[in-house]
From TrEMBL:
Name recorded for this polypeptide: Helix-turn-helix transcriptional regulator
PROSITE patterns: HTH_CROC1 (PS50943)
Annotated Pfam families: HTH_3 (PF01381)
PANTHER family named in the record: DNA-BINDING PROTEIN, TRACRIPTIONAL REGULATORY PROTEIN-RELATED-RELATED
Residues of the HTH cro/C1-type domain: 8-62
């Protein structure tokens, strides 16, 4: 299966939120946001739903699986 990717950094920039701002809104630490953005941490479904609510976006438009390169071309 592919790796979990996300658009959190992009959406934060769009909404002019710092990592700290987003962390405060969802009840997490700034370090957690940094780890999520780098792809070094797969957030719980609770955090995913909270992030989705902050940005008013569908979960699937923020978090998605990226293949290993073998089946990405369609």
């Amino acid at each position: 299966m592919g790796e979990l990717r996300n658009r959190v950094r992009e959406l934060r920039a769009r909404d002019r939120l710092s990592q700290g701002d987003l962390a405060q809104l969802i009840g997490a630490s700034r370090q957690t946001i940094a780890l999520i953005e780098r792809g070094d941490y797969a957030p719980s479904i609770v955090l995913v739903l909270k992030i989705s609510a902050v940005f008013h976006e569908q979960v699937e438009s923020i978090f998605f699986l990226e293949g290993d390169g073998e089946n990405n071309e369609q």
